[in-house]
Each structure stands twice: as C-alpha cells, then as structure tokens.
Amino acid sequence: MASDSSSKLRIIVENNPPKSRLEELNIKHWPKWAGPAGKYNLKYEAEETCYFLKGKVKAYPKGSSECVEFGAGDLVTIPKGLSCIWEVIIAVDKYYKFEPSPYASSSAC
C-alpha cells in the first residue's frame, strides 16, 4: 500500500438514518461512551461505527484542511488508520462498535 493512504481515509456521516437501519445494526446492544467537551487527539487502530445520542463534534483529519461535523442523530463510520483531532463542542453520548482485527481470529490461512 502507498505510504500516503491515510490521506485518502474519509469519515462517513449518515444524518438521521432511519430507525430500520439502526435496528438492523443492533445499535442498542453496543457499548455506550460519554465524554465532556474538549479536544482529543485520536488514532483509529480499527474501524469505528458510532451513533450519537447527544453532542456535537468537529473532527479534523490529519493531512486535510477540512473538518467533518457530526452530532446527535448521526451514524458515523471512522476508518481504520485515520488520525484526527476531535473538537467536542457539546458533550457526547454515543453507542459505538469497533470492527474486530483480522488478526483476532486464527481461522484464516
């Protein structure tokens, strides 16, 4: 893979997905996380999908001049390998799920 692949990683935001989509993902069985307003430097070692119950965030992906905004009512997918700064404007309450590492299972040959 190219060494600049992290610059092609994108945060995907689904604004107000239908209830059927949330039920299909089984979101209410995911762990919850809540965090206060502030700035956080993050590096994603696995893909994260999260559904925001409360809050507002501006994410600044490394190597990009743009920010991605999301918050209450949004379903957000953050790709593995992305580094970014989260500026939490309004305290966050969310459901989240990390995709398991391909190395977590030894069944593949």
TrEMBL record:
Pfam families: Cupin_3 (PF05899)
Domain (S)-ureidoglycine aminohydrolase cupin: residue ranges: 23-96
SUPFAM superfamilies referenced in this protein's UniProt entry, alphabetically: RmlC-like cupins
Name of the protein in question: (S)-ureidoglycine aminohydrolase cupin domain-containing protein
Domain of life: Eukaryota
InterPro entries linked to this entry: RmlC-like_jellyroll, RmlC_Cupin_sf, UGlyAH_Cupin_dom
